[in-house]
Amino acid sequence: MDNLNKKDYQKYAERKIPKPTYFKNIILAFIVGGLICVVGQIIRNTLFKYGLDEKAVAAGTSIILVFLGAFLTGIGVYDKIGKIGGAGAAVPITGFANSIVSPAMEFKREGFIFGVAAKMFSIAGPVLVYGVGSSIIVGILKLLLTKGR
Q1: Span 111-123, pLDDT tens digits
Q2: Per the domain annotation, does 42 fall within a domain?
Q3: Residue 148: Cβ within 10 Å count
Q4: Which of 23, 86, 128, 134 is deepest in the core (most CB within 10 A)?
Q5: Which residue spans traverse the membrane (predicted)?
Q6: Helix (H, G, I), strand (E, B) or coil at 111
Q7: Which residue has the higher pLDDT, 23 or 12?
Q8: DSSP output for 21-80
Q9: Backbone angles phi, psi at 3, to 5 degrees
């Protein structure tokens, strides 16, 4: 090993690096994301059975899914789901809850204000800022472009 030149070492390293399993990852993301959506649909159907209107059902479904994502993160289950499902676990609203709870848990030893509260939105914060900012820009553009119609 000591007498390898740079080119030989590069070839050696490329042989040792594990090859990503893209197809498997795509399938697992699809399955996990789909299962999260199935849970959301079950919650939605259940809330409709209790006679709630469309707005209440939409709000209730979102609230319950965020709670489930936060709760599962708190007991250490959502991280395991995320390892299996990748983007399938990160993209739904439960992944948003996970992105808020995980940093808060990590920094809880630093106290409630400077730990939990300060770090809670370290991952989700930029997503919120750019999401709200871009929606405002799109809204203004739509207003300006469709004002005469």
Answers
A1: 667 666 666 666 6
A2: yes
A3: 5
A4: 86
A5: 21-44, 56-77, 84-101, 121-145
A6: coil
A7: 23
A8: -HHHHHHHHHHHHHHHHHHHHHHHHHHHHTT--HHHHHHHHHHHHHHHHHHHHHTTHHHH
A9: -100, 20
Nearest-angstrom CA–CA distance, 98 and 110: 20
For residues 70 and 107, the model is more confident at 70
Q: For the purposes of burial, counting CB atoms within 10 Å of the CB of 85, is it exposed (0-12), middle (13-18) or buried (19 or more)?
A: buried
Cβ count near 101 (within 10 Å): 21
In a domain, residue 86? The reply is yes
52 — phi, psi (to 5°)? -75, 150
Residue 144 lies in a domain: no
CA distance 3 to 142: 65
d(CA 31, CA 88): 7
Instruction: Determine, yes or no, domain membership for 123.
Output: no
Q: What is the pTM of this model?
A: 0.68
Is 66 within 8 Å of 97 (Cβ atoms)?
A: yes
Residue 95 burial (10 A CB sphere; 0-12, 13-18, 19+): buried
- Contact by Cβ (8 Å): 91, 33: yes
Counting the structural domains of the chain, the total is 1
Domain of residue 20 covers: 6-106
